Every structure is written in structure tokens, then in C-alpha cells.
Amino acid sequence: IDDEHRAEEIYRDIIRLAPDHLPSLNNLAYLTHKKAEIKSARQLYEKILEIDPGHVSADFMRAALSGETRTHSPDSYIEEVFDEFAGHYEQSLTAKLGYDLPSSLYDFYAQHLPDHKPEHVLDLGCGTGLVGEKFSTLCRSMTGVDISGNMLEAAHHKNLYNSLHKAEIIDYLDKCPGASYGLVISADVLPYLGSLEELFKKVLSVLADGGHFLFSVEDHPDDVLNPVLQQSGRFAHSKKYVRKVTGQAGWQMIAMTTLDLRKERNDWIQGSIYLMCPHPVS
Ligand SMILES: C[S@@+](CC[C@H](N)C(=O)[O-])C[C@H]1O[C@@H](n2cnc3c(N)ncnc32)[C@H](O)[C@@H]1O
Which of 86, 200, 209, 242 is spaced 20 to 30 Å from 40 by Cα? Predict the structure, then answer.
């Protein structure tokens, strides 16, 4: 916190001397947003957009702070955020924010499908490889996909994945050769995707016979039938929306549970994990 306070002072000093200095404005907006000073953060994002109307991440964050509707996060924004985050991702998430979703997914899978040992597992949005740490001993091969080169670099050093691909998830699924995965996992990634219609259709096409999809979402408490962009810049998905889009794409739910995902400031973020299989064709 001291470092962030000091950083904030430095950015303010720079902006006093050079009011249009975009990196300082952007960093100050991020720190202000992190402290939940919503009005000031929004004004800073607006200032950035006055100077550079094409600034993708400022436009997205301004929308998030203004309650605007969006259907997707911009790819360049996600890549930038996680490239920046990669060096301290595990320390921040697991040590400070209580993130243990990969273990919860593993226990949930083992509870509902005991003795299942998928041959090939696809980890969509693999990040630094925390899912690989849990699932790699269960299968013969693990493939990881992520848009952030720095997150993938950390995953690479763990030596758990047989192949790692730097790609946007939907693009990767589009180019994926054939149906071969016995299990597709996506841990804490759908909140960054927004609309899930495409995802659920495409994952079906890469699944081997008898395969499953195991994923998490951040819950939206109401019965809204669309993804909701939150002030955090992540999307929340209601149970009703997940049921609707998975049903339309041809999925059948095996099990679902609700849990605390991780802390944000002092509160736990509520989420759900789902285990699904293709609906049997009658
Ligand atoms: C919160 S991290 C979760 C990482 C990992 N699954 C875990 O449980 O630790 C979200 C990851 O999803 C990736 N990601 C988000 N949207 C993506 C997209 N559209 N295509 C590829 N990767 C994406 C990010 O780069 C990031 O590494």
C-alpha cells in the first residue's frame, strides 16, 4: 500500500508537469479505480479518452464504471492486464486473495466423475498453470491456451503442459484440429469473455466422445439473461443465463455448485462451478 501511495504521488507530480502524459494518467486511473474511488477513476479514463479517443482499455474501463452494456472485453486490454499481472499473479491471488479455484474444480470433478481419467485435457485461459498443477497427473497430455505471453511463460516453466498456445480462446477453438479432448477446463476465465454463446458452441466441437466441460463463472444474483459488465471490468453471469446458453448450444448439466471465488478488497466474490456434458442426441 505504501508503494502504491508513493506511486500515486509520483504520477500526480508527472501529470502536474505534463498534463497529457498518458502512461501516468493510465496508471493513476488504475490505482484510483483499485481504491474504489469510482468518480475520480472515471474522470481519469475520460481524460485519457479526450487525449486519445482510440484508447481501448480506457474506453472499456470507463464503460465498466458507467454501467454501460458491453458483450466482450477487448483482447488487447486482457493481454495488457495479464502481461502486467503475470509476475505477481500467484502471490497476489493465492496468498493474498484466497484463490483456490483449481483445487475446488479438481475436487468437484473427482466427486462427480470418480475414476474418470481423460486422456487429453484442454485448459482454456491457462494463465500461469495453476490448473495444470492439479489436473496434469490425471491425464496423458495437457494443452494450455492463453492470450497473455507472460502468463504462458510462467506456465511453461512448470513443465506440466505438453503444449502451450498463445491465442485468443475462440480463435484457438476455431482452428483446433478435430474433436480430441476428454476434458476442457476454464478456471476464472469466463468473467473476462462476456457473451458465452460462441464459447459453448465451439467447445462442443473439440470434445472427444464422452468428454466434459468444467468451468467457473462469477455469479450475477438476479435472473438477467445477458452477461453484466461490473465495475471491476469483469462480467457476471446469472445461473439463468448459463442455463439458457448451454441449453441452446446442446449441453446438459451434470452438477453445479456455488462457492467463494476469491476476495476483492474485504469481500468474497461469489461464483459457481459447472460440470457439463453434451446433450445426448435422441
Ligand atoms: C484470472 S486468470 C485465470 C488463470 C488460470 N485459469 C487460473 O486459474 O489461475 C484469467 C486468464 O485468462 C486469460 N484470458 C482471458 N480472456 C482470454 C481470451 N479471450 N483468450 C485467451 N485467454 C484469455 C488471461 O490472459 C488470464 O491468463
Answer: 86
